[in-house]
């Protein structure tokens, strides 16, 4: 198992372009923030859908009244301490409100779709930045390799001249001039090595991972710059309109604003709703009278019969007073109600009118944003196509220039070694060859990046 560790470490430090982009997507905080905004839009959409459902509210109220108050059982005034309870259950559902609920759902659905496009656009922007940083690493590595080859060649010449100088075959100035060239080549190696590490650092920062000096990036395919890229800006623009996230997001927000206008217009219509309620209550003062019997008792009045006063007898019903239990009151006091409610807006201090005007203003602004986004997209594609063509022309020109200067340097090298040309001619030829080789590397990766940009606009960017 110990022998596997170096292999795993080596594999983990090798990055393809796709791996870099995937890591950046996973770690980038802006992408995560965009996902949070999308989650918020989804919650608002769910709430807009739920607004169409009936509500159900329960009301429970317990209290203690002291002194003169109304008995909730008999609705009569009573002067005693009363413990009471009231219970209610009600529901209400909107049947019609000018289409506001329906259009609010539509508006929030379009906002959620726009949020998805925002997430995609943030990923696209990050992907292009990672692509540029990735190619910059490759560009700097190739320049480093080129400068190292130049240094090797210069060192061989210095070794040759050192031997000739020791033999007294050349003047010392020739050796020192070439040693100065060697120092320049060594400086170029140092600068390019630092540039490679700087590019790696920038790539790691985009991926939001710790800097790894040992990281390696895979080379891109040679087919990416072997042939001329055929691009028609107008056709690319028409394709880009179908999938570029920023354009689709602007279009969806324009549609959402149009739905918001309908929501605001619905405030001018009556609102029809249906409601139903169930209610019961309890009071510890509630009493019931239980019939016991009937008895004959003197009423307190008298009648005179002759000289006698005889008492008047009356019939009296006898009752037993007892408190009504909690369960019995809960059942006996039960009542229900339902009704249809119509609210007609007559005057609301111009709130509905001004909200409608604001919604229309937002719609016009979103239309301008959409048009501006489309114009900017078209201009970006035209500029990208122009840059690609210029990069290709520069690359093909430098290919020929490199071939010519390489041939000139080979001839100058042979002539210099044969002693039929000066060291100045040799150094001029070498510097021309080195400079054009570096320029070719720069032009090559510039052309690759320009073609990748156009691939992105056509939804055919391959990260493999």
Task: Record the SSE blueprint.
Layout: H1 4-12, E1 14-15, H2 17-27, H3 29-50, E2 55-65, E3 68-70, E4 77-79, E5 82-96, H4 100-166, H5 172-207, E6 216-217, H6 233-243, H7 245-265, E7 271-283, E8 287-305, E9 308-323, H8 326-332, E10 335-343, H9 351-418, H10 423-457
Parallel strand pairs: 1-6
Antiparallel strand pairs: 2-5, 3-4, 5-7, 7-10, 8-9
Helix pairs in contact: 2-4, 3-4, 4-5, 4-7, 4-10, 6-9, 7-9, 9-10
Short structural summary:
This protein has 464 residues and is an alpha+beta fold. The protein contains 10 helices and 10 strands.
CATH level 1 class label of the largest domain? Mainly Alpha
Taken from the alpha-carbon principal axes, the silhouette is rod-shaped
The CATH architecture category of the largest domain equals Up-down Bundle
Low-confidence stretches: 1-11
Beta-strand fraction estimate? 15-25%
For the record, what is the CATH homologous superfamily label of the largest domain? Answer: Outer membrane efflux proteins (OEP)
Mean pLDDT: 89
Give the H and E element order.
Answer: HEHHEEEEHHEHHEEEHEHH
Helical proportion, percent range = 55-70%
CATH topology of the largest domain: Outer membrane efflux proteins (OEP)
Rounded Rg: 46 Å
Structural class: alpha+beta
- Main-sheet strand order equals 2-5-7-10
- The beta-strand count equals 10
How many domains make up the 3D coordinates?
2
Note the gap between the termini: 31 Å
DSSP helical segment count: 10
The description of the largest β-sheet is:
4 strands, antiparallel
